[in-house]
Amino acid sequence: MNASKTVLVSGATGFIGRALCAELRARDHSVRTLSRSHGDVLWDVDQGTIDPDTLDGVDTVVHLAGEPVVQRWTRAAKQRILQSRVSSTELLVGAILEQSTRPDFICSSGINYYGYNCGSPVDEASASGEGFLAQVCRAWEGAAQPLADSGVRTVFVRTGLALSAEGGALAKMLPVFKWGLGGRIGSGAQYMSWIALSDLVAIYCRMIEDQSINGPINAVAPVPVVNAAFTKALGKVLGRPTLCTLPMPVAKALLGKMGEETVLADVGVLPSRLLATGFQWEMPELEAALRQILNRV
Fold it and tell me: Which of 146, 11, 40 is nearest to 31 (CA)?
């Protein structure tokens, strides 16, 4: 049985944050939420302010907050996406460094770190890639580097496509696929690196409870799939055809650069460091995961 910890969570109202907070409480950890207006403790990233007692008694900080990526990428939106992550991380890092006893820091990041056109699988030893989101991830993780340099245990959870019927990309796909209008994008050969929400939550819990883990962790299922295989599996689970095809040029025209770096990306990521720790996925296979997530067992 793991010792109970006090965990401070930013971004606790998002679909990942809600699931994580519920699981932490179920494991008898004490959870505090950090929010602009409705959390247990308050902060204002724009003003650079945070409650002075925010970190009192906190063992671990889990930082999930950030401007949504899926929106039209105007110049202003891109600035918000970048600054929301960098500024909030800098604010937390500064507060942690002021503590005599410094909590561990576990920061969300993305597999976009590796770029958006990786093709063949990459892992934590791979270099960062090209694109706006890769730039965001580098800056995001870089903002926490002073903690690692000072000896604070710092973990970056580079997350893939988190699958849940309650939110995220899958919830947005479901109506189209249920109408029988789902299908592959372009050739369907582009990699999709995914993770069931319950496994993602279990990974965060492992990062909180296992003091031996530092640095970047790829939070994805053991084997990435290509878009055509993902499309086929989702259609099979829903019992709907997936004959529609969205040509890549049309998809790029509709979704712009945001779509090119997210839903159209070709990023095959392996969780090499998780595998080395002996982590056990509850849902390592895509079709079985989709059946469980969508209650189609």
Answer: 40
Beta-sheet strands, E only, within the chain? 6-10, 30-35, 41-44, 49-50, 60-63, 104-110, 154-159, 161-163, 191-192, 194-196, 215-219, 225-226
Residues 52 and 252: their CA atoms lie apart, in Å, by 46
Task: Identify which has the larger pLDDT, 154 or 172.
Answer: 154
Q: In the chain, where are the structural domains located? A: 6-164+194-220+270-283
For residue 77, give the nearest of 14, 130, 136 by alpha carbon. Answer: 136
pTM: 0.96
CA dist 262 and 36 (Å) reads 28
Q: Which CATH number fits domain 6-164+194-220+270-283: 3.40.50.10490, 3.40.50.720, 3.50.50.60, 2.40.340.10?
A: 3.40.50.720
Q: Among 176-180, 216-220, 253-257, where is mean pLDDT lowest?
A: 253-257
